[in-house]
Amino acid sequence: MQIEVCKSKIHKVTVTEANLQYVGSITIDEDLMDAANLIENEKVQVININNGERLDTYIIKGERGSGTICLNGPAARKAYVGDVVIIISYAIMDFNEAKTFKPAVIFPDTETNRLV
């Protein structure tokens, strides 16, 4: 049996930009991506703590050390600059493997979006 489980989570980062004119996606500081075991083009769920909005999109690599969290394209309508979001990716794996799997969960500084 295969099940879907949390693979990676960036818990509580602040949206720094919202670019409606971009094609789509979320831009994430590469330091945060590395720490949370995320890769460019990976599908993620973005959950907005301020308004309850949820959306699925894919990652674009942001400048390392910049603290960038930018919702692009239509996703920019789901959050304002300053909103706090949680970013989660999931993986499908064997049920027994999932029992021992440990997701990469990080808790950056919410004010700066930098690793603590």
The average pLDDT score comes to 97
Supply Rg: 14 Å
Helical run tally: 2
Strand content: over 45%
Number of domains: 1
DSSP strand tally: 8
Low-confidence stretches: none
Please identify the top-level CATH class: Mainly Beta
Secondary-structure element series: EEEHEEEEHE
What does it look like?
This protein has one domain (2-103): Barwin-like endoglucanases (Beta Barrel). The chain is 10% helix and 47% strand. It has helices at residues 30-35, 95-100; strands spanning 2-14, 17-19, 25-29, 43-48, 54-62, 69-72, 84-94, 104-106. The mean pLDDT is 97.
In short:
The chain has 116 residues and is mainly beta. It contains 2 helices and 8 strands, in the order βββαββββαβ. Strands 2-6-3-5-4-7-1-8 form an 8-stranded mixed sheet.
List the helices and strands and how they pair.
Elements (H helix, E strand, L loop, with lengths): L1 E13 L2 E3 L5 E5 H6 L7 E6 L5 E9 L6 E4 L11 E11 H6 L3 E3 L10
Parallel strand pairs: 1-8, 2-6, 3-5
Antiparallel strand pairs: 1-7, 3-6, 4-5, 4-7
